[in-house]
Specification:
This protein is of the alpha+beta class and 444 residues long. A six-stranded mixed β-sheet has the order 7-8-2-1-15-14. Strands 9-10-11-12-13 form a five-stranded mixed β-sheet, with helices on one face. Strands 3-4 form a two-stranded antiparallel sheet.
Length: 444
């Protein structure tokens, strides 16, 4: 078993693009059938911009290197997700080192028990029953007013039911793990979910470093999220290895085009693109100077020497990508279960010098994304702090679909469903009566 696993990883054997975990079976078969019908026509179906209406949705994205620490059953993710104060429509959570990066994990098969634990905690936090949210007229979650007056002037609680969140894609490659969740009422409009894994680690192919990318189409807009873990190292020149990893991820990541050949194949071909992860870029200053500026909280002086910012400005990596303004402390490296940076405690011998740095980042490419929040969490689970962001994203919705959805929300549709319920109830009673009449055997 082991030789086969190792050979498949070293030879870069591609994992099936639909090999991921989700709350419900994807609709690949249905899409294949529809696509085959489309292929019978000489021209593919085209939806023009004039046929689309733009809707805004909130997207939450986070990245967290958990240092190989398995989560406990009582780990609370509500503080990180903050669903009550900042409710979103889509949640994308990326993790690095969900398992220790030792040989047995790098060369062996994935440990799904750990990712199942993380998904269970995410589900618990997202689907916590709350009376503080409702769906507005645009179909988005927002904080609701506590009471609504009735005709008699007496207040009563809103009857709006907040939909649950469902996992549409969950994928692990060694220590990398990404999990994507959407509101259950948006799930029917999600199509073509796929994954693509790229290993950039040992021998430039193993998955201790690299990326897990996921993509899907919401209505008529394609999304791509890239969860990455780039080469480590704090020595001068190590940033070149990180640049090389990034270039490999962008060039080697590939998705299926679909039966109609109309789906984006490469990362940069998608409409909305977000890259998250432990990018491992450090601060190009002597360690004492870095620690002094951290103690002073002088983020601007530190950012002027931040390797990722420098490489972006010089066009060495991620050309054309954007990052929001950083107004939070460096996220690496902390003592476990402590708010002290590694190396800050005097008298500890044998410690490697690890100056603080913003290793954990979230960047994006293209238009249609507006960043509303960029900050960090304060969980002390590992030597990294999680980083999170919220985007407002534009999504193209077909006019035909909008008309259909309006019908489903109309009073006419409610009357029809009510009549059908009555009819079903009457049929059920009739069936019961018939059953009772033939309950006794007939003797001929």
């Amino acid at each position: 078993m082991w030789p086969m696993l190792v050979a498949s990883k070293i030879l870069g054997k591609r994992i099936g693009s639909n090999n991921f975990v989700a709350d419900f079976p994807n609709n690949t078969e249905a899409l294949l059938e529809l696509s085959c019908l489309e292929q019978q026509s000489p021209r593919p179906k085209i939806i023009y911009n004039d046929d689309l209406e733009t809707h805004n949705h909130k997207v939450f994205v986070s990245t967290w290197n958990v240092g190989g620490v398995a989560p406990s059953e009582n780990l609370n993710l509500e503080g990180l997700l903050d669903t009550c104060n900042n409710p979103c429509d889509i949640y994308v959570l990326g993790f690095q080192e969900v398992v220790p990066l030792r040989a047995s994990n790098v060369l062996g098969s994935e440990n799904s028990r750990i990712t199942m634990k993380w998904n269970s905690l995410i589900r618990k936090a997202l689907n916590k029953k709350t009376d503080e949210l409702e769906i507005n007229e645009e179909g988005r979650l927002e904080a609701k007013q506590k009471q609504f007056p009735t005709k008699g002037g007496k207040p009563m609680e809103s009857s709006v039911t907040v939909p649950e969140f469902r996992c549409i894609i969950s994928k692990q490659m060694v220590g990398l793990f990404i999990s994507v969740w959407v509101r259950s009422d948006l799930q029917p409009y999600v199509r073509s979910p796929n994954v693509s894994c790229v290993g950039c680690g040992i021998m430039s192919c193993l998955g201790n470093k690299g990326s897990v990318s996921v993509r899907f189409r919401l209505h008529e807009t394609s999304f791509c999220f890239v969860c990455s873990h780039l080469a480590s190292g704090g020595r001068e020149g190590d940033e070149r290895y990180r640049n090389s990893n990034a270039a490999e991820i962008l060039s080697r990541t590939s998705f299926p085009r679909g039966p109609s050949l109309d789906l984006p194949r490469k990362i940069l071909d998608h409409d909305r693109i977000i890259l998250l992860g432990d990018l491992n870029y450090r601060i190009s200053l002597p360690e004492p100077a870095t620690r002094l500026l951290v103690d002073r909280g002088d983020w601007n002086a530190l950012l002027r020497n931040d390797q990722l910012r420098i490489e972006l400005m010089e066009g060495q990596v991620f050309e054309g990508w954007q990052e929001g303004t950083i107004k939070f402390a460096p996220t690496y490296k902390y003592y476990p279960n402590s708010n002290k940076y590694y190396g800050a405690v005097k008298g500890k011998r044998g410690e490697k010098k690890r100056a603080p740095a913003w290793c954990d980042r979230i960047i994006w490419f293209g238009e249609g994304l507006k960043q509303d929040l960029y900050t960090r969490g304060e969980s002390r689970l590992s030597d990294h702090r999680p980083v999170k962001t919220i985007f407002t994203t534009e999504v193209g919705v077909s006019w035909k679909l909008k008309g259909l959805r309006s019908f489903f929300r109309s009073e006419r549709f409610e009357r029809i469903t009510s009549q059908l319920d009555d009819l079903s109830s009457n049929i059920g009673r009739s069936s019961f009566q018939i059953t009772k009449t033939i309950d006794h055997p007939i003797i001929l």
